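Hi Y.,

Following your request, here is the sequence exactly as I used it, all 259 residues.
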Amino acid sequence: MSDDSHPPRRQLTIMLVPDGGQKGRTFTISYPMLRVLGGVAVVVALLVAGSSWYVAARASHVSELEDKVATLEGERVQVQSLARQLEGIERQYTRIQDMFGARTAATPSDAWLAPIVAGRRSSMPRTTARASTPSSWPLSERGFVTQGLLDGAVGQEEHPGLDIAVATDSYIRASGAGTVVDVGVDSIYGNFVVLDHGDGYTTLYGHASLSLVTRGERVRQDEVIALSGSTGRSTAPHLHFEVLLNGDAVDPLTLVHQP
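Below is the corresponding structure, written out as tokens. Let me know if you'd prefer a different format.
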């Protein structure tokens, strides 16, 4: 006699017994269902782990982006600083261009030139060239003061006048009426002119490219006496202008005004 009955299915019985004597509960789960639930648990665990990794990766990416933003902000500040420096350099360059650039025909020079007679400058009569205290700017251009008067104090070199940067062959003018007491070439001042204005005042004009006066000649205030240059101990075109009172250097800016 055959037995057609199936073998009993394997099951897992879970009994929950609460405290306090309450009635317990029993749950029966078949092994196939248990395997399904185990698979679901594994999938859920993988999803949670994947989500955690994704969140961590995104957080790391956000941190990298924040670092890049901070770097870009620092670079932006540097660019702004460089832009301000460039603007300052451009202003200075424009200033130098204006100083050394060619004068346009619409801007006449205010230089006073002595008349020319038979190819030479004529000496002005004494009545029209009376001595006067130096008070005029010694150039027909404004120029740019690169070095002022230094009296040789402790830790300081002596510099007895003004250095005024100006384009080559600009007009050098007599700061006051007077007599040319010296014209020559010096290893330091190059081509130079010295004027005596009376009352103990003398002026010196150095580094000229060309002197236009002779010793003993009388000149009027603002008369052109030389052309600027870079002769002698000089690294660039400029005028060295000194004012002396009884042989002692006086700050020219206390007597003349830069236009």
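The radius of gyration is 48 Å.

Thanks again,
Q.
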